[in-house]
Amino acid sequence: MQSDLVAALDIGGTKIAGALVDGRGRMLLRVQRPTPAREGAETVMGAVEEVLAELAASPLWPDAGAVGIGSAGPVDASAGRVSPVNVPGWRGYPLVERVRRATGGLPVQLVGDGVAMTAAEHWRGAARGYDNALCMVVSTGVGGGLVLDGRLHTGPTGNAGHIGHISVDLDGDPCPCGSRGCVERIASGPNIARRALDNGWRPGPDGDATAAAVAASARAGDPIATASFERAARALAAGIAATATLVEIDIAVIGGGVAGAGDVLFAPLRRALRDYATLSFVQRLKVAPALTGGDAGLLGAAAAAAPARRGPHAVTFSG
């Protein structure tokens, strides 16, 4: 019987993780290296190759039939290249070809980290059982991905579902992407903290000025901190409602560090969604926190690689 084992890579600005993942989502082997993000392209690739070499040393490796990569973006899956904002040495870097070469020619599937999280949540998390879903990572940035008609929808370059750069405030602040009033510019962790500070919130004695500290203040009743989270929630709700209206999703799953604020974020988000998701076919849209946590990148990379392992007509991994 053909094995469902795949090798998965999760590549970000702080760590490069790898795993051998079976068809039930079990990580049979997991390894990790720090990302030498300030070094040159080949030094970074050297860390990737070290992770792959450690996986390849396992007696399980011969059963691995494909490699899935979830990478910080932007990515260009059609060209197999990556340009992570937080890894300056990689600009248009031919990651797929280099990984294919390092693994002796195994099929390689590349997706962005938001899409990887989506694949993980659809396979083993809060979007499991839903045929149409939006999954989001709300952290330092805001990313996401889509499941449509039961399948991961990546788009030609692997960036479909990148909700962070939908504009929800036409006259809003300029965004580093070049647009204005993007969801990310309002709802990411650093921007929640920035807005709170700009409006007079001050951190406690420990000096923590992160979104997590703003959330703690909001939980304690601070009106400025609460207002910053409410604005972030409205931005997320507007982006989610626009996506749901466009492609008819049934659930929006939210993960990432900002989701750790719990009801400080989710309560105003659900209230705001009622103001934006008004058409009959989106009124029952569900919002849920993500369940796969820190394993999302590896699980999602494995899920994305499953079709390459099992052939063009494969179904998704088993439950």
TrEMBL record:
Where in this chain does the entry annotate a coiled-coil region?
Answer: none
Which Pfam families does this chain map to?
ROK
**PROSITE patterns referenced in this protein's UniProt entry, alphabetically:** ROK
InterPro entries, per the entry:
ATPase_NBD (IPR043129), ROK (IPR000600), ROK_cs (IPR049874)
Question: Which family, according to the similarity comment?
Answer: Belongs to the ROK (NagC/XylR) family.
PANTHER family noted in UniProt: N-ACETYLMANNOSAMINE KINASE (PTHR18964:SF169), ROK (REPRESSOR, ORF, KINASE) FAMILY (PTHR18964)
Protein name (Swiss-Prot/TrEMBL): ROK family protein
What is the species of this protein? Streptomyces ficellus
